[in-house]
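User: Structure please.
Assistant: Input sequence and predicted structure:
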Amino acid sequence: MLRLASASLAGTAIEFYDFFVYGTAAALVLGPLFFPTFSPLAGTLAAFGTFGVGFVARPLGSAVFGHIGDRYGRRPVLLASLLLTGLATVAVGCVPTFDSIGVAAPLLLLVLRFLQGLGLGGEWGGAVLLTAEHAPERRRGLWSSFPQIGPAVGFLLANGMTLTLSATLTDAQFLSWGWRVPFWAAGVLALAGLWLRRAVEETPQFRELAAQGQRAQAPLAEVVRGHWRLLLLTGGALAVGYATFYAVTTWALAYATERLAVDRTVMLACIMAAVALKGLVTPLVAVLGDRYGRRPLCLAGCTATALWMFPFVALLRTADPLWMTVGSVGALLAMVLSFAVVGAYLPELYAPRIRCTGAAVGYNLGGVLGGALTPIVATALADGAGPPWGVAAYLSGIALLSLACYALLPETNPALVETRKGAAEVAAPA
């Protein structure tokens, strides 16, 4: 299990590195380089628009790769999605700017960002099912949390490289070529990920489905036709995690550097500290999910997020590194209460024959609802002289929406479900 979980974590970290490198570049440099004729605000909004395209592509990627995963196995998904995302990311680092090729530059960004999202949409389902379907029932939450650590590791890799370049290069050098280096590095990381995953075994549950001839013929059609309500609930439930994460890591970075005149290096360091703590806490929260259930932690996470968003905005507004870090840590710890357990929760909600498609599409639908729109909406709401309370209200509203969705979902922890079922049978009249 440790070998499998490590391979899953490494691949997910590399995929999310690719995805986050773009988000950081969108917050810092893509506006002036690819939309120079726009005002600073409009340029940032346009850059975040290309950022959002990746989220729109993710459900499509999860449908395509989910079909492969449910028909042909989880293992091919792990390899193909990593290769596609890595190639698209390297290509972003090679795109000439607007000054060189005009409007073709942002159009190429859109296409490559779409391909990034397509690949990442397939990654999560394959990586999570690799661990969830190999793991023992009573430790499924713990082992399935390894892919959930991947985004934090990927973010730290992406921003650590950006931070190093930002601190060692002049602004002119960083704008000229320095921002491209993290994209080029994605090629090396993708090769490393493919090497790690080359010997990964197919999961026992898929092998059993294949042997019994029970694989779904059209997994997406089966999910939409028979489980559309569950799909919408899982998408709405996961929106809060995406909205919170990208509010902290993308919108706050742009807002602090552009509106509050916080040094780029300082703000990156604040966010990285918060993300590092989030990654460390993830497996600890997952263990609680194995003991007390997935659903209670998700409900607690949504509630904590709704309560923390106004303090988060207030602390960000101070422009003090310590208080900005405290605000970011609080937001990400609230978020991780729910996201630490979804690696086990979502696969348990769907039957094995449609699990790769259902879990992945639900997960990435949450990305569209929470991740694609948040930087754009937050940037527009923060366009004023005073504190951006509208941003806090927006994020709290998403947290309450997710809370309602989780309240309508069942508990899936096998140990708790069996205990409650046994208690109900004992209590039932003869």
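Residues 423-428 have pLDDT under 50 and may be disordered.
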